From TrEMBL:
Family: Belongs to the IlvD/Edd family.
Taxonomic lineage: Bacteria, Pseudomonadati, Pseudomonadota, Alphaproteobacteria, Hyphomicrobiales
Positions of the Dihydroxy-acid/6-phosphogluconate dehydratase C-terminal domain: 408-601
Alphabetized UniProt keyword annotations: 4Fe-4S, Carbohydrate metabolism, Gluconate utilization, Iron, Iron-sulfur, Lyase, Metal-binding
Species name: Chelativorans petroleitrophicus
Record protein name field: Phosphogluconate dehydratase
Amino acid sequence: MTARREIEAVTARIRERSRVSREAYLARIDEAASKGPHRARLSCGNLAHGFAACAPQDKAALSGDTVPNLGIITAYNDMLSAHQPYETFPALIKEAAREAGGVAQVAAGVPAMCDGVTQGQAGMQLSLFSRDVIAMAAAIGLSHNMFDAAVFLGICDKIVPGLAIAALTFGHLPAVFIPAGPMTSGLPNDEKAKVRQLYAEGKVGRDALLEAEAKSYHGPGTCTFYGTANSNQMLMEIMGLHTPGSSFVNPNTPLRDALTKEAAKRALAITALGNEFTPVGRMIDERSIVNGVVGLNATGGSTNHTIHLIAMAATAGIQLTWADIAEVSEHVPLLARVYPNGLADVNHFHAAGGIGFLVRELLDAGLLHEDVDTVWGPGLRQYAVEAKLAQDGTVIREPAPQKSGNEKVLAPISKAFQPTGGLRVLTGNLGQAIIKISAVKPEHRVIEAPAIVFHSQEELQAAFKAGELDRDFVAVIRFQGPKANGMPELHKLTPVLGVLQDRGHRVALVTDGRMSGASGKVPAAIHVTPEASEGGPIARIMNGDVVKLDAEAGTLEVLVDAEEFARRTPAAPDLSYEHYGMGRELFAAFRSAVSRAEEGATVFGNALAG
């Protein structure tokens, strides 16, 4: 079954645009795959080093070249709630590999930082760059050339995109991504948000705020709101990189462990040593990327993926643009309401039918490419299922429920929450920007008000506490782009702007920084490009200039005479104070080399373009 003509048209344009770079990429990975199992080409000294610490049975197996060896790339650390469950995964994977007649080794650990911990802190300026560091760290692990396939243990914001870039760089190898699942539901996200706003207004103290936060983020697993981490999991499944039905099963449960072992065995089954060879670089193609964009829009997913998906696709020689994402959004209805786009969390979404229900609804409507390859085999219809635990401890799958368990959380196509997706591109005399509108009420989607310009979120917070912001205005937070300071997320603005909107003021945000999956009820034009550090138009805005953000029409403009605006000298503050401390001095080369947001904000540049 093919997708509707509108989706096919976007895919065809991407395919034609990418023809040269995609052909070059495929030629490279085909050459690598043609050399067969690489251990046979290692010297005896190389190989002896590679299995020196293995158990005797694994050494014996790896001495030949007919037993598949599975490389484990892990983002485990026990500070991140989402990654703490990965502590036990390597042992499960090694056990599963032996049961399947193979071997598994931890090839590398990669860094994994938590945006929740670093919000509003200097470390947040390393967050986006950590994606490319993760890709390079994973590449170092796989460069030992010991492996026939790889499994990737990562779940949160920059970790999964970084691992995906690495997997596609080693596109001649099969790759399976293994999730750890969300934490069980705690304090509802909307109640937590209310306490944050009360704290911002000075109506409750730090003790009350910390209590609310700790009740919300209370155990192992991903945060339960639909931010980048859980958007990652949706993407990996709808793009066929997870085993079916595995994304949102809670950690430390028998089903989670069974899914982990099954994924390891599946990775071994699709190596070049078997009959189902599925190199990830050929498996992920233009159709898979478009399916990811469809899923992102249908669920109101994280705005970060308007950056990450472009960088991931480029690694495979596929040239995705913001215009493609926006066009898909015009044809894909919003089917999920998960906080901040609603009151539910991802556990409620999963219980209502989850990814399986979503995939079936989108396939039946012709909004997904069904004829794609996946780690589970050909065809995306296999993902319209629900995974369950059999009596013998293995995984069984049943068709996804025909009806949503809660249509306020997960709607069928016939009852979509809105006819278009959650993401939109804004264009105008301020350049280009992204806005997430799935959580913004229609009456707040068009804002025209005077600008108040800030160069940090701390400046805005200080103005709020001083009582200077009780009015209609557009907050312009600039010099937050990748070249300026690494493009941090600006979550500390959310409670303040939410309070002002609740007071009846018409407010909006315009920034060259990020807001991520937590973009909520206040209209926010983010990722503005060209950024201020490049002398982009946002650097010429002055206090009092009227800015119009129209999310319905898709425009972002400053209403100033064009000749006068062009004559202005762009602001150029000294940003050196932001380039030292918390490791920021080590990333000067990244700030210098990074591409624009609409190009994936990557330091790899032409290397990804082929």
